[in-house]
Write a structure and sequence with these properties.
275 residues, alpha/beta, Rossmann fold, Pantoate--beta-alanine Ligase, Chain: A,domain 2, 2 domains, 6-stranded parallel beta sheet, 3-stranded antiparallel beta sheet, 9 strands, binds adenosine monophosphate
Length: 275
């Protein structure tokens, strides 16, 4: 595997790679969820590039940018073992020169749910992914269902800004007890970790109740009862998969999305209802 920290050597390597090129953007601290995206890219494309960049623009001023887990050596080994062709791990100045001032505005979609909780988050995500797509020019972009609203934002970005890249969404990888894998799970204390799978259980209950004919509101109430008392729920809603506007009846493709705090750690999860 080649490792490049700057654009010119990354592009020199990319020129030698066979197409189609699959691309997996990450913030590192890689776990089996990230690796599932790499496996999908490896299976479907001739070459695979992964980026590793903890993007300061997608963190709010009070968020965990400084303490976000970083382990470059371990990530490097995992990606090399998975047969990745190129690891692009730029320095912040490579992505954002000192007078950087141009951003991608994702509109209303970026103001709902995660965007309401984190007002500059999707602007930061969309800006860095647009830049990475320009820099690496991949054929297929691999995204995790785990970050459902991000898949909607980036699918729209690709369409609205005429990138030729195709988007592939890969299903969420979970722990045996249902907790979605996340780099932020490392922040959980023992009791928080024990309570965390109730977010997934709540989403499953909500889906079951809706499918049994209950109203979305009744289903939501049943789901809230499944959540651990330790969880501080932020939202639990049925939404359209591309606009993220709320649905009162099940109309696929849709997501059931949830976010809750366990102690200081904010966790997200969702169920993808495709048909
Ligand atoms: P991150 O490093 O958190 O920016 O995530 C990089 C990519 O991995 C994103 O497309 C995420 O949606 C995806 N991802 C994170 N966790 C999981 C998971 N548990 N299952 C599948 N994909 C995931």
């Amino acid at each position: 595997m080649n490792v490049a920290h700057e654009l010119a050597p990354a592009r020199a390597q990319l020129e030698k790679l066979a197409r189609p090129l699959g691309f997996v953007p990450t913030m590192g601290a890689l776990h089996a969820g990230h690796m599932r995206l790499v496996e999908a890219a490896r299976a479907q494309c001739k070459s695979v590039a992964v980026s590793l960049f903890v993007n300061p623009m997608q963190f709010g001023p009070q968020e965990d940018f400084e303490r976000y887990p970083r382990d470059f050596e371990a990530d490097n080994e995992k990606l090399a073992a998975a047969g990745v062709d190129l690891l692009f791990a730029p320095e912040t100045a490579t992505i954002y020169p000192p007078d950087f001032s141009t951003f991608v505005d994702v509109g209303k979609l970026g103001t709902r749910f995660e965007g309401a909780a984190r007002p500059t988050h999707f602007r930061g995500v969309a800006t860095v992914v647009a830049k990475l797509l320009h820099m690496l020019e991949p054929d297929v972009l691999y995204l995790g269902q785990k970050d459902a609203q991000q898949t909607a934002v980036l699918t729209r970005l690709v369409r609205d800004l005429n990138f030729t890249t195709r988007v592939e969404i890969v299903e969420t990888v979970r722990e045996p007890d249902g907790l979605a894998l996340s780099s932020r799970n490392a922040y959980l204390t023992g009791p928080e970790r024990a309570a965390a799978p109730t977010l997934y259980a709540a989403l499953q209950t909500m889906l079951k109740e809706i499918q049994a004919g209950k109203s979305v509101e009744e289903a939501r109430e049943a789901a809230v009862r499944v959540l651990s008392p330790q969880a501080r729920l932020e939202y639990l809603n049925l939404v359209d998969a591309s606009s993220f506007s709320r649905l009162q009846t099940l109309r696929p493709p849709a997501f059931l999305v949830g976010a809750a705090r366990f102690g200081r750690t904010r966790l997200l999860d969702n169920l993808w209802i495709r048909t």
